[in-house]
Design goal:
There is one protein chain. Helix content is 35%, strand content 15%. The chain is of the alpha/beta class. Strands 1, 2, 3, 4, 5, 6, 7, 8, 9 and 12 form a 10-stranded mixed β-sheet that branches. The chain has a two-stranded antiparallel ribbon with strand order 10-11. Helix 4 crosses helix 5. The chain is globular. It starts with 10 loop residues before the first helix and ends with a helix.
Length: 356
């Protein structure tokens, strides 16, 4: 072998041998993108299939057996409630009331007018700003679930209340983006809700649970919507009340079907027995909506809603948790938040607590 004619490959030439050509790199990236999209489609398909199975099992029957419309007698359907303090009446509340449908993130099967017709008098909804900066009913974020504007939602409630002059409705709005209360005031004004929303009477103080008016007094004053927001309430808008000045809540987003805790979860300042005297002068909300994990995503448990909302005293049922909380705090909750309210016997539980 003639060594003079041989030279080893340089480092530069070696690197060139393993470098990926631009077409190859483009192909590899395209392939990875395709694989990721395929996995995402498989995940979405699995969630959709699970939703369809749930609908076949749970939703379809409800379309033929909707809760009957409550007769307009007395106050909120019962004469005995007319002269009872607002704070001393327990109400089943629809968690995520505007998020209606068959998708995993939906919390209800029936739209708001049907909820009200069935007897719901406490509505809860989550709000965010959409891409145009409008206050909108969005589940977690507007890209996930957009149920329309807050103003339109309020218009629906106002329209229903006009037709039902002896009913008082409670509304709890969560301020997901912590925007100014002025956004809410604009929606209330545009919908006509501001005119019928309760402004605390002169003798009503947040620090005294017994100063709440009766339902008859609210009806007589034509202030039949009682509204709360969980962030940035301000006395400049006196009809939108600060949730945490009037309420505390039990733990939420529960995945334990026994609902074993009735502890004060929010506001944090009232946890672990702190300011017990203050807590006693506030109403409270029992969160009784069950979540479950589907392919690693936490979603409302539609399949077991009938058991979750049951009137029996079985572990995890609605009556069981309310009884547990009543025993722990010496009084029943003002609101009991549930998903898929028409499943189970929520109104039987409500009427039993109220003694009607």
């Amino acid at each position: 072998m003639d060594d003079s004619k041989y030279s080893p490959p340089s480092l530069a030439s070696s690197t060139t041998l393993v470098k990926e050509d631009p077409p190859q790199r483009k192909f590899r990236l395209t392939l990875l993108l395709y694989i990721n999209h395929t996995l995402l489609l498989i995940l979405l398909a699995a969630i959709l299939i699970d939703s369809i199975l749930n609908i076949i099992e749970q939703l379809a029957p409800s379309l033929y057996h909707l809760p009957s419309q409550q007769t307009q007698i007395g106050c909120n359907g019962h004469p005995s409630l007319c002269h009872r303090s607002y704070s001393n009446i327990t109400q089943i509340a629809t968690h995520g009331s505007p998020f209606v449908g068959i998708l995993p993130m939906d919390n209800q099967n029936l739209h708001v007018p049907a909820q009200l017709d069935a007897g719901i008098r406490f509505l809860q909804a989550q709000t965010h700003l959409d891409r145009q900066g409008a206050l909108t009913l969005c589940h977690t974020e507007c890209g996930m679930k957009d149920a329309g504007s807050v103003a339109d939602y309020l218009s629906t409630i106002v329209t229903w209340l006009v037709v039902h002059p002896h009913e008082v409705v409670t509304l709890l709005l969560t301020n997901g983006d912590h925007v100014s209360v002025d956004y809410f005031a604009a929606a209330f004004s545009a919908s006509g809700a501001a005119e019928i929303t309760y402004v605390p009477f002169r003798n009503h103080t947040a620090t005294n649970l017994n100063t709440w008016p009766t339902l008859a007094e609210l009806i007589s004053a034509e202030k039949r919507l009682v509204a709360f927001v969980d962030a940035n309430a301000n006395t400049s808008v006196p009809y939108i009340l600060d949730e945490w000045a009037y309420f505390w809540e039990t733990p939420f987003d529960v995945t334990d079907p026994s609902f074993s805790s009735c502890a004060i979860d929010r506001p944090e300042g009232l946890r672990s027995g702190k300011n017990a005297a203050v807590a006693k002068q506030r109403m409270y909300i029992a969160n009784h909506f069950l979540d479950t994990s589907v392919l690693g995503m936490v979603v409302p448990d539609r399949r077991d809603a009938g058991r979750t909302n049951a009137e029996g005293e079985g572990v995890g049922g609605l009556a069981a948790q309310v009884g547990r909380c009543r025993g722990a705090h010496g009084r029943a909750p003002k609101g009991v938040l549930v998903d898929y309210f028409e499943k189970g016997n929520a109104f039987v539980v409500q009427d039993g607590i109220n003694g009607v």
